Amino acid sequence: MKQKRCDFKSRGVFACSPHFLRQTARVPFASDAQLDALYAQINERWFDLSLPLCQMKWSRQLTRAAGNIDVKKRIIKLSIPLLVDAFTSVEASFEICGVICDSKERALEEILKHELIHLWLHERGLPSGHTQAFRIKAREIGQPKTRHGIARPLPKSGWIYICPRCNAQIVRRRRFSRLVACARCCKAHSGGVFDARFKLKGRKISAAMD
């Protein structure tokens, strides 16, 4: 019998779809001029004005990372789902790069600082990933970690699936029509082969969960 291999997607679960996010009517809260001003402020305070100008864009397609940067093209993308939609609740508070952020303005600043470390390394001719040099610079600017803990907002309806081992979550508009398992755990513990031990447990989303 041929073994089924997991289809590894961005969220680390089998057959994951990123198009579940509730899209609010809110538009990005920072204009191009405000983004440029924040960029200049961070560049001056933390990088001695050594960084070149970058183009910055808001993106609804960016749903896993709160931001990313193409260091060669000097383009920074910022996530609307994670930096705008996730902060619609007044109680919203998330850890970003080890810093507690209770507003979208603070979250944007920390994400932009993070992305500019990548650019700073590239401009110095160094590898621009999460290297030891990256982590040293991150600590210098007050970021003890390299990841964010922003929770993406649930839609009003659909299905939520949870891995029984690592608690990874996936949200879908429709119920899976087949058995699915956590790709991260299958990869880590069964060579990337589907393993029923990591079968995702699903339940229907109700208004009370939101």
Automatic annotation (TrEMBL):
Pfam families: SprT-like. GO terms for biological process: response to stress. InterPro entries: SprT-like_domain. Residues 33-195 form the SprT-like domain. This is SprT-like family protein. It comes from Abditibacterium utsteinense. The lineage of its organism: Bacteria, Pseudomonadati, Abditibacteriota, Abditibacteriia, Abditibacteriales.
